[in-house]
């Protein structure tokens, strides 16, 4: 995950989409990502369920440096038209809501990929697909220099923490 564009989506439990079955929600989110990519003329498809794979799907060409997460697509991951995985995600649901964390493999995208346009388009597509208000992007970079982050970095880099694990 060193060359990814990552995102996180938090859905409050009061939202109807937060109650959607996980596989269905995963598909809705990835269709929204696909539509946002297609608005940039990047052809996409969703990976079929492994039990329903057909010969119609092209075998992906995966570079040796690809992250393990991008080697084998799961059902409804976003693929390029040649079968290479572009995007995947993971979900965690509890009584407080639903967290979706995902990433797009930047190496699978064109060199001139317009990330700013994609961000705006993705927000619109997600809002439409999930029937939620269009959200806003938060710039979290200022948090990276906070005192709390520095304490956590020191803790995770400490000999005590790493030897205990």
Cross-sheet strand order for the largest sheet:
1-5-4-3-2
Q: Characterize the main sheet.
A: 5 strands, antiparallel
Discrete helix count = 4
Please identify, by name, the CATH architecture: 2-Layer Sandwich
- First-last Cα distance: 22 Å
**Number of DSSP E strands:** 5
- How many distinct domains? 1
CATH homologous superfamily assignment? Bira Bifunctional Protein, Domain 2
- Topology pattern, helix = H, strand = E: EHEEEEHHH
Classification by helices and strands = alpha+beta
Helical amount: 25-40%
Which helices and strands, and how do they pair?
Elements: E1 4-11, H1 22-38, E2 44-46, E3 78-80, E4 85-94, E5 97-105, H2 115-130, H3 147-157, H4 159-164
Helix pairs in contact: 1-2
What's the quick description here?
This protein has 165 residues and is of the alpha+beta class. The chain has helices at residues 22-38, 115-130, 147-157, 159-164, and strands at 4-11, 44-46, 78-80, 85-94, 97-105. Strand 3 (78-80) and strand 4 form a beta hairpin.
Describe what this molecule looks like in 3D.
Helix content is 30%, strand content 20%. It has 165 residues and is of the alpha+beta class. The chain has a single domain (4-137), classed as 2-Layer Sandwich (BirA Bifunctional Protein, domain 2), CATH 3.30.930. It has a five-stranded antiparallel sheet. Strand 4 and strand 5 (97-105) form a beta hairpin. The longest helix is centred in the first third of the chain and has 17 residues, at 22-38. Mean pLDDT is 85; it is low at 53-60.
């Amino acid at each position: 995950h060193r060359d990814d564009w990552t995102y996180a989506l938090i859905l409050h439990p009061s939202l109807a989409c937060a109650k959607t079955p996980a596989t269905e929600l995963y598909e809705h989110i990835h269709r929204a990502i696909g539509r946002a990519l297609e608005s940039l003329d990047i052809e996409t498809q969703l990976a079929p369920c492994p039990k329903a794979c057909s010969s119609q799907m092209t075998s992906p060409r995966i570079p040796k440096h690809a992250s393990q997460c991008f080697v084998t697509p799961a059902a409804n991951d976003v693929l390029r038209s040649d079968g290479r995985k572009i995007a995947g995600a993971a979900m965690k649901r509890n009584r407080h809501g639903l967290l979706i964390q995902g990433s797009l493999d930047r190496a699978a995208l064109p060199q001139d990929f317009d990330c700013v346009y994609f961000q705006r388009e993705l927000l619109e597509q997600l809002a439409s697909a999930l029937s939620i208000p269009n959200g806003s992007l938060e710039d979290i970079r200022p948090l990276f220099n906070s005192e709390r982050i520095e304490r956590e970095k020191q803790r995770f880099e400490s000999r005590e923490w790493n030897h205990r694990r």
